[in-house]
Design brief:
about 290 residues, 4-stranded antiparallel β-sheet, 10 strands, about 20% strand, globular, binds zinc ion
Length: about 290
């Protein structure tokens, strides 16, 4: 299953991790898989990894932010940007605090980055498929790094009008346009399917064909679904755990995603699954037009 952490999972990680690591100093940093730190392809990736680790050691973590599906650790000099790729996980272990479950036992062979912080707190980055990315950004580099991303769904700038402008004239399906991050950032396959169901829009509808009434519904659904998913601490279908090894609970509230053949919660007809924008897409042919 090609699932990656989406906005609600990354936001949940940010909230839990910030409580445990903000204000602490990175005393030691080690990275086992250099390619996670590579920003360009070179024959030997180790110098890039060494440079990242050198910049992290001794830095104080001031706070954590999120941009779309990226987690940003603000340091007293520069920042560390983490993208979890497909299977990335961040765990924090604080002396005297018991994680919610003992799995995985840390560090294991999939634990690639270890940060030892003041107060004997440890942060583990674990990633079975190793598609994650770790980047150190100097002050002033952030804008260019995130240039490809559209609006943040909870920002003041994200309105039915800006959504309309982003979709205007587009022939691509609304599903593809929501997945590609250029119009609005943070949604992936699970939440796009849920959002389109809630706004009663068929996933293959060309973005430029949506009426302003449907765009208003779509805008509201994006915020509602994401807000609810954050409240339930994300969706755990396979790899997602929060930094305390806790599962999310939004998987019990999904209305269409992963429910192929089950009755639609609105009309009772079976949920179908087909391929739209090269992704398995779950929807109700009767409710979504
Ligand atoms: Zn239906």
């Amino acid at each position: 299953m090609n699932l990656m952490p989406e906005l609600p999972e990354v936001e949940t990680i940010r909230r839990v991790l910030e409580r445990k690591i903000a204000g602490r100093t990175i005393q030691c940093a080690s990275l086992r898989v250099p390619k996670l730190a590579a920003s360009r392809l070179t024959r030997d990736l180790r110098p890039q990894a060494a440079s990242l680790l050198r910049r992290l050691r001794g830095r104080k973590i001031l706070g954590l932010r999120r941009r779309a599906k990226y987690l940003i650790l603000d340091l007293d000099a520069g920042r560390l940007v983490v993208h979890l790729g497909m299977t990335g996980q961040l765990f924090a272990r604080v002396p005297g605090e018991k994680p919610c479950c003992d799995l995985p036992a840390l560090p294991d062979k999939h634990t690639h980055l270890i940060l030892e912080l003041s107060g004997r707190v440890r942060v583990y980055y674990r990633d079975i498929r190793k598609f994650g990315r770790l980047r150190f950004l100097k002050p002033g580099e952030e804008e260019a790094f995130f240039r490809h991303l559209g609006l943040e769904p909870f920002s003041r700038g994200f309105t039915p009008w800006t959504l309309d402008a982003g979709l205007h004239g587009k022939k691509a399906s609304v599903k593809a346009l929501l997945l590609n991050q250029h119009v609005v950032a943070g949604l992936g396959n699970i939440y796009v399917d849920e959002v389109l169901f809630r706004s009663r829009i068929a996933p293959q509808t060309p973005g430029g064909r949506l009426t302003s009434e449907r765009i208003r519904r779509l805008h509201a659904a994006i915020r509602e679904v994401l807000r609810e998913a954050i409240r339930f601490r994300g969706t755990t279908l396979s790899d997602y755990f929060d930094p305390e090894s806790r599962r999310g609970a939004f998987q019990f509230r999904l209305k269409v995603y992963g429910r192929e053949g089950e009755p639609c919660p609105v009309c009772g007809r079976p949920i179908i699954k087909n391929v739209v924008a090269q992704r398995g897409t779950h929807w109700c042919r009767h409710c979504q037009r």
